[in-house]
Amino acid sequence: MSIFKLIVTVIHDYTNFTTVLLAVFVFLLINKLFMRSSNLPPGPRPWPLVGNLFILSQDAAQIQFTEWTRQYGNVFTIYYGPKPVVVLNGYNTIQEALINKGDDFSDRPGLNKSLGVAFAPYGPIWKEQRKFTMMGLRDFGFGKRSLEGRILEEAEALRREIIKTDGKPFNIFPLLRKAITNVICSIVFGARHEYEDAAFGTFLEDVDIRFRTSTVINRVYRVLRRVPILGRSSQRLHQATERMRQFVKTKVDKHHRDFDSDDIRDFVDVYIKEMRKGQNENFTDPQLVHLVIDLIMAGTDTTSQSLYWILLYMIVYPGTQQQAQDEIYRTFGDSALPTTAKHKEVPFTEAVIAEVQRINSVAPLTIPRCTSNDTVMYGYDIPRGTMVHVNLWSVLRDPSLWEEPDQFKPERFLDNQGQFMKKDAFIPFSIGRRFCLGTQLAKMELFMFTTYLLQHFTFKLPEGAPVPSTVGKLGMSNGPRPYELCAIPK
């Protein structure tokens, strides 16, 4: 047991004033000695016992981190209790760490038992599983136009559900989440779910619990589970995760029973086929279950939240919505199906999508990383095993890279000829070895769902309703605060 855990136990069991004072004194002494003996990057002074965790209980840690760069530079240290955490900010710094020093900054903290790919530690097994996953997903359309049919099928199902609202105010997010999840389920399980499916609904509720409950505090500082409120939150998270695991395991078990090596239907079948070769002990049912959960998590919440943000900005900026709709109508008319083959013919729509991703990144801090080797950044020593936050917000809102970065301006992504213009600093999916596994799918979904929805509906603010806030709420992702809109069929 570490000294800090011992202190927390003492405080928990013997809550008298003398013990608390002694615990604080011991913590301050240890913290002072540690800080004197290290060459970590500078940072804000930590509080007794909690370090700098107080700021991470808020919804906008990424904004505070960005503000701290003015005082401490683009690489600084904060503390989760007595444990140092290095925060990387700025495009050049992040590129140096994740690209030039990628082998040093690609590990994960010990958050699970090394299964799956999202949270698994960097190493041979992770590389093997990720490579196999990418190859298997490509067989079912990842990054290819053959996937468009699945997306359009779901976009049409979504349209039919929206029609049922009859132009009345409603929160569209639950429908967006079902649609996006169905796309990845069709690839992974070979089938979509009806929106009324009770088991599917419960699974999505658990996905939501995992994203909403998994704040930075709850994920990375297990000691705080002793605090009653955080302890209940952690228990809720564990229960939701276990239900998700059981949901996926049930489907994997059915795939085993129905498996036919001559009829590979989906990604689960691809994985089972590899398992049955019996040539690699790393391909197991528990690994497959965790891998599928990772894929669903990667392909569900962030894309759903991005679409939710896009529609929010459409009702806040109706002129922008109209301009995008006019462009979509000129290209696809009112009935032709959108296709990525014509994405260059709707540059303003692409610019709108990109600007929403820039101004409100759904993953501003990414999943925490961990150094896999002792390394050095700008003269500071960062020991192996140090947790690392990558602050993409500091890049996407950097005034040296984006003119008036806090303003919504889709035209910043258009060149002088009105064509969409890619920018190096536009990195909403991160970079390096741990970039988002669902990047290609997310890009296709955002383009096709956005064009399809704007082709068929005009989205409006309900009469008399307040304008929705463009300040998000940070959990594992940065999503809009709940709002309602009216969908008027065109």
From TrEMBL:
GO BP terms: organic acid metabolic process; steroid metabolic process; xenobiotic metabolic process
Any single Pfam family the record assigns to this protein: p450
Location(s), subcellular: Endoplasmic reticulum membrane; Microsome membrane; Mitochondrion inner membrane
Catalytic activity, reaction form: N-[(5Z,8Z,11Z,14Z)-eicosatetraenoyl]-serotonin + reduced [NADPH--hemoprotein reductase] + O2 = 2-oxo-N-[(5Z,8Z,11Z,14Z)-eicosatetraenoyl]-serotonin + oxidized [NADPH--hemoprotein reductase] + H2O + H(+); (5Z,8Z,11Z,14Z)-eicosatetraenoate + reduced [NADPH--hemoprotein reductase] + O2 = 20-hydroxy-(5Z,8Z,11Z,14Z)-eicosatetraenoate + oxidized [NADPH--hemoprotein reductase] + H2O + H(+); (5Z,8Z,11Z,14Z)-eicosatetraenoate + reduced [NADPH--hemoprotein reductase] + O2 = 19-hydroxy-(5Z,8Z,11Z,14Z)-eicosatetraenoate + oxidized [NADPH--hemoprotein reductase] + H2O + H(+); an omega-methyl-long-chain fatty acid + reduced [NADPH--hemoprotein reductase] + O2 = an omega-hydroxy-long-chain fatty acid + oxidized [NADPH--hemoprotein reductase] + H2O + H(+)
One GO CC term on file: mitochondrial inner membrane
Annotated EC: 1.14.14.80
Coiled coil: none
Single GO MF annotation: iron ion binding
Membrane topology of the entry: Multi-pass membrane protein
PROSITE patterns for the chain: CYTOCHROME_P450 (PS00086)
Cofactor(s), names only, from the UniProt record: heme
Keyword Transferase attributed: no
Cited function: A cytochrome P450 monooxygenase involved in the metabolism of arachidonic acid and its conjugates. Mechanistically, uses molecular oxygen inserting one oxygen atom into a substrate, and reducing the second into a water molecule, with two electrons provided by NADPH via cytochrome P450 reductase (CPR; NADPH-ferrihemoprotein reductase). Acts as an omega and omega-1 hydroxylase for arachidonic acid and possibly for other long chain fatty acids. May modulate the arachidonic acid signaling pathway and play a role in other fatty acid signaling processes.
Name of the featured protein: Cytochrome P450 2U1
Gene encoding the protein: LOC118431708
